[in-house]
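subagent[fold] <- orchestrator: predict structure for attached chain, return tokens only, no commentary.
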Amino acid sequence: MRAVRPRVGCGNTCVSLSALFGPAPDGRAYHRGTHDHRPLFTDDRSQSHQESRSAAPPAPPSVTGVIRRFVPSTYRPVLAHRLFRRLILGFAVSCLGDGMSFVAVAWLAVELAPPAGAGLWVGGAVAAYTLPGVVGALVLGRRLRRVPARRLLIADSVVRGVFLGAVPLAWFAGVLSPSLYVVLLAVSSLLHAWGSAGKYTLLAELLPEEQRLAANTLVGSLDFAATIAGPALAGVLVTYASSALVLGLDALTYAFLAVLVARTRLPESGQVSPVDGAAARGGLALVRSRPELLGLLALTWFFNFLYGPVEVALPLHVTEDLHAPGTLLGLYWMLFGFGAVLGTLAVGALRRLPLWPVTVGIVTAWGLMLVPFGADAPTAVTVACFTLGGAIYGPFVALSVTLIQAKSPPQHLAAMLAARSAVLLTASPLGTALGGPLTTALGPRATLGGSGLATVALGALACVLLLVRRSNRSGIEKRALVSRG
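subagent[fold] -> orchestrator:
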């Protein structure tokens, strides 16, 4: 009978010839596989050559490989999106510039203003950096609502870059007066609310719905990171270089963002608005019909309003009361941002606690952290209190929004949130504008302490009203049980 020859290497199967026929007579090994065109027999020299070739350094990992290895699974699809990676780079750079300007805007106002009116000019400068954005959001709605998100983002970045960039140019030319400085800041912020709305609308157009939460979280985290790195860097620059130079760097970050967005092919979006006017009007009517939500909105507005003077009084406290350099102001805000990040990360644990008591407790505790400023406490104590205050202040926004989500009817939630955004647009900027006259009249230390005491009083009032409401509700429930019995 004729012997059947074994079939070797069929398809993807690779069978050892040594296993079929035994070792070769001279002791060399058969080569495995039939799809490889190397010699059938290999000696030690060829094996060592192959080993040396296999020992070559590996190729550098791709971006996708790095994302899979180091990034949590929730964010991997978002960061794997090439256009999103380009955009978030521009957002990160501009956020860093804003973090630096947070210190430099007030510090340059202190340098430009006459000593007698420093408080008024610092308050005006800080308010000019934010308040015109509110005016632009409310006044320019009809003209800008139909402009695509990409164009709004570019327009805001160009306006910010041009007018913030004019500040160091005027400073180096020796023509920068306090009034010109405030005007340049005001014009630079006119479209900023629209730019922010365009940014998030663009993300919604770019990404599928299931990836938007992760994208918004990543972009929002840039603001927290900027409050840590930006003030620290600005504190060094305003002390050893120039505060006007810091604003010039912020202008360059917006120029970078404008060029990056302009050179990136992005989808054209539909209507964009910082505030949905129709929804806001309907939401306000709903809020007025629900006392609990009306109380929450009032508490949030006054809490943000009483925070406003802090941004004016703190830089003047550093310069006038402590006679310290800009590095100390940068340290205050850097540690505040660090505390806010930690506090925000703790929101998950706080969700297990009753939302109303925790929210009211945050208001009261933040006020207590400002009281040592008015009591002339040592600098180390006020730095520690401001850091702890950041951890207390950080979760407030998330908790207040969660309360609205919990107390609003699901079909009216969007209108309620639109009403909240419309009302709160004015709170902090108006408080900042009021901070200038207050600091001039009372002094920085008393303004900080007074803001703290007023906030404590606000928290105490909210606590009393909360207890009264719960007592009334308990009485109604008891009477209902008695009537049923």
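orchestrator: received. Logging for downstream: Confidence is low (pLDDT under 50) at residues 1-46, 48-54. Residues 444-484 form the longest helix (41 residues).
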